[in-house]
Fold each of these.
Amino acid sequence: MEAEEERGWGPEAGTRPKMLPRSQLRLSPGEEQEGRETRLRVVLRVRPLTCTETRRGDRHAVHSLGNGTVHVSAARHDATFTFSAVFDAGASQEAVFEGSGMQQLVELAVEGFSCTVFAYGQTGSGKTYTLMGPLGQSDAPELLGLMQRSFSCLLEQSRGTGLTLSASYLEIYNEQVRDLLSAGPPRALPLRWSKTRGFYVENQLSVDFESLEAVIELLLQGSQRRRTSAHALNGHSSRSHAILTIRIHSRAPGTSKQGTLCFVDLAGSERVKDTGSSGELSVEANNINRSLLALGHCISLLAKPRGKRTHIPYRDSKLTRLLARSLGGSGVTLMVACVSPSSRCLSETLSTLHYASRARRVTTRPMANRVPREKLLQTLEEEIQALQLENLSLRQQLSLPRSREVPGAWPGWVGRYSLGGLHCPPLEGQLPVEGAPAWPSLYGLLRDFVVENEKLRQPQLPPGPSSGDIPTIPSHSQAPHRSIHIPLSQPSWPQHPNMMPTSVHRLPKLPPASSCPQCCTNAIASQGSASLPLPAQDDGTVPSCWLQKGKRSQGRSWSSLRQHAVPRDSQEAAGTEGRVIPSAPPWPGPPEPSAAGAIPVLQWEEASEWLEELI
Ligand SMILES: Nc1ncnc2c1ncn2[C@@H]1O[C@H](COP(=O)(O)OP(=O)(O)OP(=O)(O)O)[C@@H](O)[C@H]1O
């Protein structure tokens, strides 16, 4: 745990929820990290002395002690700092890429997380060099920076996986947000806020790309448009904060993710008397320093424990607004602090080191950006797969033949539903509806599995007939009606084929059926017979209170769904001997073909919204 925290991106102490071992859940690193308080990862890079500094006879004041520790020594200043990694003057660009965790950041972005790497430090400390290398030197691939190496890594991952990539590039110059990719002279773009998107730049140009050459060309073009000037400490000093964002849209069967990989090259903090800036340069310097101060202020507040945090003033600058999500929200962030080793830059170096140390205490709660409807479909598929495994296991335990070995022994759902794809073929007599989601079919399949598995679980049941069909529940059975709360957000058990559930104890707990609170004393209509937990009235209809859409509450269980849709075939099941008890709630949408005459209570949109709420 400690080691994990030391590396950064480790969960905060005490925030790790109880989980099954990873081997059972088969979680990806991103899934493991999702929703947990996660520290910013901070690494330090010390550049070599420049020719001017060497000529001047500046001394080395910053020494790496190894193990992520750095020591600063000069006359009255002596201090030691620890980071996730420290790269000294001899470290190559490749070593920085490998040791900073950049590759992991790319992987998380592909998984749908908002990932940010930002370079912070005094002017001339090597931020641009670390991120982009010396731009335009294509003959020296070893000098390529974190950005180009990440692009390459990303494109490698995108090969054959259907990732869609696009890039946007902007700068914040004198508190104006400007597009670096759109044609014509840079003009200010509005920065807006919305509840769903947070802060965003309106009308920003986004360019799709498919190759490394294309994205590097975009980087070059944009960087050439960025404001730079010469001053005493840097002949090519960036006068703006630059933000290059790569959007990664990945589509796989049943899921769709939208991750971002954001590179922030901050303008360097500077002392006007050191840089000799005047006129426009000093106006720029003031704006740069002011926005960095706002960033520092936000970081100081964010570094406090969550309970003690006060309001975070993101709105104090455009920079902090755009970094809000990366710093305090749901992103994963890497900070590369850059310093000069020169004894002359000591006070600025110490300031950067304190700043970076504070940033190490900042935490976020990473959340992947998934398209909810598709997430639901994915979850349904996972549940079905888990139930299918259980079904096989139960059949084995009851010495029932595997259905596949007995022709015609598959339960009714086989053939009606296909697990392979989300978009099942239309059923007989049913017209295909363009763009119609496969939820009813998946839901129906889920329900059928639940029903069959529940029946197979009944301990008093004799082994089934030789046909391998599901044994029926005897009419005298006192088995209570139960509704299953299916934990959609977590797989019920391992989904690896080699990890079949070995005992029924791992099945979801079955709570007692709930009754209609308004008018029915007992929803379980017929004692001793297989029936739905539905209060059928004399005329065969269902009390209106069951059909009314009640006020939606958070955390509703599957059983509450039952109140919203009642297939008529389910009602008919009440009181029918030997019928399977459908303990899964009926699908709240339009009727399935098998549920002839179902009562459609909710509109499709409502039903889908509702399911989204559930997960
Ligand atoms: N690790 C390094 N190895 C060799 N040269 C470096 C290294 N880091 C920086 N330099 C050189 O130092 C100079 C300043 O670097 P750079 O422009 O990247 O600084 P910066 O922090 O981005 O400055 P500013 O904030 O003013 O834009 C450049 O000439 C660059 O080539």
Amino acid sequence: MNVRRPKIAPSLLSADFAAIADQIAMVEAAGADELHLDTMDGRFVPNITWGMKIVKDLRRLTALPFDCHLMIVEPERYVDAFREAGADVITFHYEATPHPHRLLRHLREIGAKAGIAINPGTPAAMLEDLIEEIDRVLVMSVNPGFGGQSFIERALVKVEEVRAVLERRNPACEIEVDGGIGLANIERAVRAGADVLVAGNSVFAAGDPPAALREMRSRVDTARAASR
Ligand SMILES: O=C(CO)[C@@H](O)[C@H](O)COP(=O)(O)O
């Protein structure tokens, strides 16, 4: 049974980068467990965000773990640089490389937590031969590329499927859910088996972001206690 305390990871994609130091300090003070940093290349996804330089500069602002989600083609070309820039968890997309097994092993070799993400159209079963190599499975609950999209309910079934396999073969591995997470679904995501909840717009676009984060924290803890 999974008894870990779920983590909440505000997604900086939705933050105001003109005031990024304040935005990070705000979510850190409100209890964020880690920060989610989305790198997009305009090829794997239609949007473009930031690279290693930004990660390296942000690293100086906080000791919170950095969860770097690479929505890029050929992620193997860049993971070492993201690690050197300060990434703690590096998550690449199953759909973005022909060699996910090799890349997962490499991530552990360079001292990163090895994360792998699956798009809404990718079945959980595609991870079957990788399970023991993974530290974190990221189940996308929107199609990657943009913040503020609607949550795809089917993702919860996928979280349950992944949790069932992990319980048998790799119980230390975490499950992260990313996209459209907010008060309407965060408890259900925890009950399905999620350990890490990424929240972009539901935190940074809220009228009172610290209050929104604290409410999520409270609901997440209640949901985990009830599912024990
Ligand atoms: O990876 C992505 C989007 O592709 C996410 O990390 C978003 O940043 C989540 O934002 P919200 O859906 O929570 O607003």
